[in-house]
TrEMBL record:
UniProt KW keywords: Membrane, Transmembrane, Transmembrane helix
Ranges that cross the membrane: 21-43, 73-96, 153-173, 193-213
Sequence ranges assigned to domain DUF4328 in this UniProt record: 64-215
Organism: Streptomyces cupreus
InterPro entries per record: DUF4328
Source taxon at top rank: Bacteria
This protein's name: DUF4328 domain-containing protein
Length: 230
């Protein structure tokens, strides 16, 4: 009886392929995120300064003219951030799936989650807060040198900061939507600014993870099969 008749699907064989190209693409995507976030920080500061003037009771034609320019920049940078994020997610997930398959070649039985979770784990609510980290650690361990497992400090630092920035981003978005007075809007923009800074730091650590893991897999592939004990 086939696997299909049993109601099960057998995973495709794992083949070792170079992650270098996809790694470079993922780094480029994350770099684009950082670039748009840097512009967003500038726009955030302009918006914060604008609403600080409004909170102080300043209302005149000059301020209203500046408000139009600042709000237009703020809107454009928000759209640029969204576009950069979507592109980065696609590139990162292509790379992530590739290194997950490679890791299965290095260590066929060293994975606590099935291959499909390398993509799906990022999109399932609640689960996305820890499944990708667990998968990353399994990939990391499988990709480490045969006789010298690498510590998890970089992965844990990246994941902690990413979760913090994710939660902060949702909180600041809600705060901004619910703000009504100039002071409330000013405080909400400050929260958005802090979130953008956190996002820059998380993306920088993500780049470090991509570069390190890509290099580990490349070097391990060049080493050949695991040495046989004497």
């Amino acid at each position: 009886m086939t696997d299909l008749q049993h109601g099960q699907f057998r995973a495709a064989p794992a083949w070792l392929r170079s992650p270098v190209g996809l790694g470079r693409a993922a780094v480029a995507g994350l770099g684009l995120v950082i670039a748009t976030d840097l512009v967003a920080v500038w726009a955030d500061y302009g918006m914060y300064d604008l609403w600080a003037d409004y909170a102080d009771g300043t209302y005149d034609a000059v301020l209203d003219g500046r408000a139009s320019r600042v709000e237009r920049l703020y809107s454009w940078t928000g759209m640029a951030q969204t576009a950069a994020l979507i592109a980065s997610v696609v590139l990162f997930l292509c790379w992530f799936h590739r290194v997950r398959v490679n890791a299965e070649v290095f260590s066929p039985f060293g994975h606590s989650k099935k291959r499909g979770w390398a993509i799906g784990g990022w999109f399932v609510p609640i689960i996305h807060l820890w499944y990708p980290r667990r998968i990353t650690l399994d990939i990391w361990d499988a990709s480490s040198p045969w006789a010298a497992p690498r510590p998890h400090g970089l992965v844990n630092a990246w994941w902690t900061l990413w979760v913090i920035s994710l939660i902060a981003g949702r909180a600041s978005f809600t705060q901004y939507k619910q703000s009504k007075t100039p002071k409330e809007i000013q405080d909400a923009v400050q929260s958005v600014l802090i979130t953008d800074v956190l996002d820059i730091a998380a993306a920088a650590l993500a780049i470090a993870v991509v570069l390190r893991l890509t290099r580990m897999q490349h070097e391990k592939a060049l080493q050949g099969p695991a040495p046989v004990p004497a």
